[in-house]
């Protein structure tokens, strides 16, 4: 289901972002506006365009958000790969997008402070330690989650291959 939605969202997003779709929307608005006198600018005439645009806007929000989320994640992965592949790059910056807003704001403040005082090695070391600690916490959580999933998988496979046990009778 997710894959089907992704494919449809990509195609619709690509089409709606085209010049043809824009031209089609302009033509619809022109036709609607020119039919105003024919329908005496009635409430129904106005309701048609209002309802149509509202429904299209509502649905497009979800499609646009879907494509934005995937594009953002792809950009982050590419940047992470560049950090990993670049000799001398500080790889502790990989995954900063997973930090909470307060930590990102603190890092931003510290980067601005460093930009004003590039010789401030103490602040830079503090920043590195904070990032390293956050990465270790995320890594531990990930390992713990993977261990639980691995254990559950093996438990499910073992119980599925064994015949059901009957409880002991008293």
Word description of this protein:
The chain has helices spanning 2-16, 19-34, 43-85, 101-116, 121-161. With 170 residues, it is an all-alpha fold. The longest helix is centred in the middle third of the chain and has 43 residues, at 43-85. The model has no long low-confidence stretch (mean pLDDT 82).
Write the layout of secondary structure elements.
Blueprint: H1 2-16, H2 19-34, H3 43-85, H4 101-116, H5 121-161
Essential attributes:
0% strand; 170 residues
Structural class: mainly alpha
**Mass-distribution shape:** elongated
Mean pLDDT: 82
Residue ranges: pLDDT <50 for 5 or more in a row? none
**DSSP strand count:** 0
Strand content: under 5%
Mind summarizing the main beta sheet?
Answer: none
Helical segment count? 5
Spatial extent as radius of gyration: 28 Å
Roughly what percent helix?
A: over 70%
**Number of structural units classed as domains:** 2
What are the secondary-structure elements, in order, as H or E?
HHHHH
Distance between the termini: 49 Å
Summarize this entry quickly.
The protein is mainly alpha-helical and 170 residues long. It contains 5 helices and no strands. It starts with a helix and ends in a 9-residue tail after the last helix.
């Amino acid at each position: 289901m997710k894959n089907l939605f992704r494919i449809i969202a990509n195609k619709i997003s690509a089409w709606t972002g085209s010049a043809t779709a824009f031209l089609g929307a302009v033509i619809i608005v022109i036709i609607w506006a020119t039919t105003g006198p024919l329908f005496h600018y009635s409430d129904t005439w106005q309701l048609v365009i209002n309802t149509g645009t509202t429904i299209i806007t509502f649905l497009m929000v979800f499609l646009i958000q879907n494509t934005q989320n995937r594009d953002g994640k792809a950009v982050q992965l590419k940047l992470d790969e560049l950090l990993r592949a670049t000799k001398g790059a500080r790889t502790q910056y990989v995954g900063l997008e997973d930090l909470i807003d307060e930590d990102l704001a603190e890092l931003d403040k510290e980067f601005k402070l460093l930009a004003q005082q590039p010789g401030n090695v103490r602040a830079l070391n503090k920043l590195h330690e904070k990032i390293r600690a956050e990465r270790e916490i995320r890594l531990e959580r990930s390992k713990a989650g993977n261990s639980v999933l691995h254990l559950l998988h093996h438990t499910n496979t073992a119980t599925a291959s064994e015949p059901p046990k009957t409880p002991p009778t008293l």
